[in-house]
Design a protein that fits this description.
Blueprint lengths: L1 H16 L1 H21 L8 E6 L3 H8 L3 E5 L2 H9 L5 E6 L2 E6 L4 H23 L19 H31 L2 H7 L4 H27 L15 H22 L3 H18 L11 H7 L3 H13 L9 H21 L5
Parallel strand pairs: 1-2, 1-3
Antiparallel strand pairs: 3-4
């Protein structure tokens, strides 16, 4: 127990004193969360800007819809703004004549504007007749399962940060210890390899938990507005399992890499494509089927899904079944391969 505690303290001190490691473990992924969180903080709430020339009840009703931002101008300027691609559509009102021009290059926004204007004009026509409408329309908003950008970004970037510290940190540690003859001295010392490995693993798990507290704490502040579900604490075992899984991948990389540069290169080849293909930075809902199938191979994809379910979607412990099984499976396979390839000396 004494040797385990001493090794753990020594490894922790080494991590704290290594400013480069601290930067890539905490600050580097945190920069992505802050930048993306601020960029997409108003996602889904922006109005479509259109140019409007003229005045009257139709223009007033368009402003009251809440989905359009009206840029008042004259008719020639309104049409020119559409031609130049500055706005997706322009509405020209001349007495009872309402004309709409929309950009052919932006069919979605253009047709949306056409639909809104047509609805407003139809209501104005019905009101002008003085007759009550024959058909009624009942509209109600409901809380759906869609997510704000910060709700998606926080679990994804947090999982990516855990994979960075797990894979790269473990790989570089193992190679460095081998090149500096630390492994050789440990082999000759009265300390079991299990004690050395478990003390390094303890620091990796503690680092993952610290990353979780830091990332979720910052994302929950007012500028970002992350709201946690009531089952958020289920993310703790997932963080621990993910840390162990990525640690085993790092041990596998470090077992055959001869230099720190080689280990860093191989680890980045694994981590960066895995992060993009696992949806750490953007949803994969609209991705092609083959890409979704490829992403299911990576443990980071399942950790992302599990973190998303328990942190913000409010799902229970059943949501951890698949992610936990995949992470445990990766841990066993990669640990087996790491043991087979492990070398005490260069």
């Amino acid at each position: 127990m004494t040797s385990f505690r001493s090794l753990s303290v020594a490894i922790l001190k080494g991590l704290v004193r290594d400013r480069t490691a601290l930067f890539f473990t905490f600050l580097f992924p945190l920069m992505f969360l802050v930048v993306f969180g601020l960029i997409f903080s108003s996602g889904g709430a922006s109005k479509t800007k259109i140019a409007v020339a003229g005045d009257g009840p139709v223009v007033t009703a368009l402003g009251d819809t809440g989905v359009l931002e009206l840029l008042r101008t004259d008719a020639a300027s309104a049409r020119r703004q559409v031609d130049d691609g500055d706005v997706p559509a322009a509405v020209l009102v001349d007495g009872d004549d309402v004309r709409v021009f929309y950009a052919a290059s932006d069919q979605v926004k253009g047709q949306t504007v056409v639909g809104v204007v047509a609805s407003v004009v139809d209501r104005a026509n019905v009101a002008a007749t003085g007759q009550p409408p024959r058909f009624t329309l009942d509209v109600a908003s409901v809380e759906d399962a869609s997510l704000k950008p910060i709700q998606y970004l926080t679990p994804g970037i947090l999982s990516w940060a855990v994979s960075i510290s797990g894979v790269i940190g473990a790989a570089l540690t193992l190679v460095s210890w081998r090149r500096k003859q630390v492994l050789r001295r440990i082999r000759l010392a009265p300390v079991s390899p299990f004690t050395v490995l478990s003390s390094r693993l303890l620091i990796s798990v503690g680092t993952a938990l610290a990353q979780g507290v830091l990332f979720v704490g910052i994302a929950s502040t007012k500028p970002f507005g992350l709201v946690l579900s009531g089952q958020w604490w289920l993310a703790i075992p997932l963080l621990m399992l993910g840390s162990v899984a990525f640690f085993s991948i790092g041990m596998f990389v470090g077992s055959f890499s001869k230099t720190e540069e080689a280990a860093n290169g191989v680890a980045n080849i694994i981590v960066m494509p895995m992060a993009f293909l696992s949806g750490s930075f953007f949803p994969l809902d609209d991705a092609p089927g083959w890409l979704k199938a490829v992403s299911a191979v990576f443990p980071l994809r399942h950790m992302n899904d599990g973190m998303l379910d328990v942190l913000v979607r409010g799902k229970g412990i059943e949501a951890l079944l698949v992610p936990a099984s995949v992470l445990i499976g990766f841990t066993l396979v990669m640990s087996f391969l790491a043991v087979r390839l492990f070398r005490w000396e260069e």
